[in-house]
Design goal:
By secondary structure, the protein is α/β, with parallel strands linked by helices. Helix content is 40%, strand content 21%. Strands 1-2-4-5-6-7-8-9 form an eight-stranded mixed barrel, surrounded by four helices. The protein is globular.
Length: 265
């Protein structure tokens, strides 16, 4: 089923809780590769809701409503448990170094005690913090509260990498890049899509990569769909590539098989 474009207005808190208890949510994973060598280095974890009532629903549709109901923490705990379960597929020395990139909303990041709860989950799951990347959008930093800053530094101190997603589409301050513990930037796919034909998008991507390099930040380009885009992005200095050219979102075991990597049963 295709994803519905708009969230139904009638989803109640009870329906969401029933969906979590009924295991209606699942994860797909999109591979990320080293730009220079094409080596698989990790995955972005993408949540999906297979609802008997609404069909297949993407996170842009249901997460905002969950947050309005105050369920963001409960839902993230469900996602983290699913990531821990999936990590059992990383059974060999070859796959043990692969990372999972998890998306965090602005509302979640502005929740007191988030980093401490996440650290507790890490201890329970047995996952290494070095294998977890946190992705947040620029909007999460638009109104930088003390709580947001405290969570970011606590994440950094736990060993987590923090990536700024959809970079170039929001309003983050350059001061944030200088002062906050950001590990890297993800160039929004809207700039990658026309990289070959639009000189302005090419200049924007070039400027982002150059700025990131000067600040010691890595750069992921998402939405890569052609070999020409991959070559241009690599030549410009992007460190990591993600998109349909690399692989579509799929179950983790399937992706490991596609890449010829061993996976535990």
């Amino acid at each position: 089923m295709s994803h519905i474009s708009q969230p139904p207005a009638s989803i109640s808190i009870d329906e969401f809780r029933a969906a979590m208890l009924g295991h209606e949510f699942h994860l797909c994973f999109q591979p990320q590769v080293d730009a220079l060598g094409g080596r698989l280095i990790g995955f972005e974890a993408l949540s999906r809701w297979q609802s008997p009532r609404f069909g297949s629903v993407g996170p842009d549709c249901f997460v905002p409503q969950m947050e309005k109901h105050g369920l963001a923490d409960e839902f993230w705990a469900v996602l983290l448990d699913m990531v821990a379960q999936q990590s059992s597929f990383l059974a060999s020395a070859e796959t043990a170094q692969l990372h999972f990139a998890l998306n965090l909303s602005a509302a979640q990041l502005d929740t007191r005690g988030l980093a401490a709860r996440f650290a507790q989950w890490l201890r329970r799951s047995g996952l290494d913090a070095q294998n977890i990347h946190i992705e947040l959008t620029e909007s999460a930093l638009f109104k930088l509260s003390d709580t947001v800053a405290e969570n970011l530094y606590a994440f950094r101190d736990s060993g987590l990498a923090i990536w700024l997603d959809d970079f170039g589409t929001g309003y983050s301050s350059l001061q944030h890049l200088r002062d906050l513990p950001i590990s890297g930037l993800k160039i929004d796919k809207s700039f990658v899509a026309n990289l070959e034909t639009d000189i302005n998008d090419f200049r924007i991507v070039s400027a982002i990569v150059a700025m990131a390099a000067s600040l010691g930040l890595k750069v992921v380009a998402e939405g890569v769909e052609t070999e020409a885009q991959a070559q241009m992005l690599t030549q410009l200095g992007c460190t990591t590539l993600q998109g349909y050219l690399i692989g579509r979102p799929a179950p983790l075991a399937q992706l490991l098989h596609n890449w010829g990597m061993p996976a535990a049963a």
